[in-house]
């Protein structure tokens, strides 16, 4: 095979991120050369019209280029990174446990993505969140029950794909039992194969049966399966192919995550190992978060590693060609023309109606006309990115005269002034002392718990939202204020 042909083949299995809100020249060039696609991140998005122009510009270079985006609803969105997702997240849908509602949300989310030119949605998360202190999955999962995750994962896949976008269920073989975030380290699970196969495998079987177009790997070592991360483990990926019968596209989680990037040879060597193991499409990652890097240099480094691996025989050419064919089939899959997406107000109204049904309330949580809102600083999750509280933004818009602070100061609010504590972020347990400090002064404070529900959650007057995002925030604000959707 000639060097240009091998380079084109290597590009055909790569999906990098890029900086900017328009396609840079290097990206246009490599799309023309055969780059499989791109993954959008929050910094690529200013609004729906801009994203449509961006994706149209990419398709002007090559019509079958793939455009992917993390659109899970709730805390994880790229298309709505600036304003918050208009759709409730997985834990909210799991708490409601209405598969029809989950399907409807996925249809709405899929239509929104399709209207923007996105054709591969990196969702749903079908990890069973069996570890309450999981730092990266948490409310991104439908829950801690295998059956619950299975039925909602399947419903979400069907909804997305009925809306005309390809679904990518994640993160095989399961990231829900970890206590390490693979963005910052390599999670290792010491669990028996029988526990894993009964707890973590069934949701993936369910989404494969539902016809998911793609499955994303986890950078997680499950010792009972192999001593390598699943992304680079042929033994693990054979389970997906041979036991579950999956013949779609296996997508890697981002190669710039430290579970792969910090391994010998870094992300470039990891890319070649992943392809050799059975991955078809390599997600390179986000060149701005958490650590910035030269997106062009990294792409070329990975291309060089793939071509070198083919040359030295560690990556069989037939395996690379197989991966390229699978990605090509995904890019060429027949889909209907995109329907016009409803405007944002309509999207939020639909999402809010679902989120409102999932809120769990204890005590009288309605606030009076004057309140102090305490917002302890949350721990930011890497998957969600850096963003302010959508609930705080909603309350500030509706009650601009209220006071918002990270803690109560020396002045205790008067008895006719309500106190509201908003507990959000990746690690709500870390905020427990801050909540206790408020309740010591004002035991009548209303506490909004935005994370996973726990037996030791504080407060006598509480709302559990089971997640965040614009839809959940609006539903919560309306309930607190005794208002109705306009």
TrEMBL record:
It is an enzyme of class 3 (hydrolase). Residues 34-329 form the Glycoside hydrolase family 3 N-terminal domain. Pfam families: Glyco_hydro_3 (PF00933). One of its GO terms (molecular function) is beta-N-acetylhexosaminidase activity. PROSITE patterns: GLYCOSYL_HYDROL_F3. It comes from the Bacteria. This is Beta-N-acetylhexosaminidase.
